[in-house]
Predict the 3D structure of the following.
Amino acid sequence: MQTGYELTHLAALEAEAVHILREVAATFERPVLLFSGGKDSAVLLHLARRAFWPAPLPFPLLHVDTGHNFDEVLAFRDRTAERTGARLLVAKVQDDIDTGRVVERPGGTRNPLQTTTLLRAIGEHRFDAVFGGARRDEEKARAKERVFSFRNRFGEWEPRAQRPEVWNLYNGRHQPGEHIRVFPLSNWTELDVWEYIDQAAVELPSLYYAHRRRVIERDGMLLSATRFVTEAPGERAFEATVRFRTVGDATCTGCVESTATTPTQVIAEIAATRLTERGATRADDRISETGMEDRKREGYF
């Protein structure tokens, strides 16, 4: 009788991500891992540590800080960098506002301004490969993305300039000044991410689980009432039991009503939902039908 060894679905995804991480470390000179403190970047960091254990990470972490982040996420970011011994670089949108490289819209979100700050950090540190936690199931523009996403010397993404990826072969060829965005979680879904968090006991910021919070209902979403989001005329803040499905700029990231306080309970909720986390809770994706794709062409994550 023949016996064989078959990987589980999660084990296959993990093996693919580890292969991609090691491929980049072996073929690029100055990679960096984008780390926001969100669930996808937390999983990506966990995978990177597994890929190179017991050696330390062969690349630093980079956070593009809008200045409007959740306090819990910033605390988690710093605590995680200290716990893992990773070198953390922080590129601040406020620095680009102060120097006039970008202009802040009164009452607007700073999320679109991150592009300039990211490209500045890539140029200053001469990064040639940038790991991101984006997944194809999040949004239709990201569904077009390759695992190795070529960016020109201006950081721009052009779908027609992307390379074929067959048999898990990746083409990282680029000229000085160009770089590659690398997405090891491309083939994961939100459910996969949470099942992996549950299986591998990946630590996350507390706001990913149900908690009491003052919120404001705006544009069909519940926004956290913070120093960055205050009541507009006709609005009233109230308390609700909520959790966040994704974490970004506090001014444009909504939460959902939930009682899930463990990964297992979150998994049960996700299995029953019909909306992706970005579609349900990210106001910055609602600017137009092509909002994400337009920003990606300019150099966004």
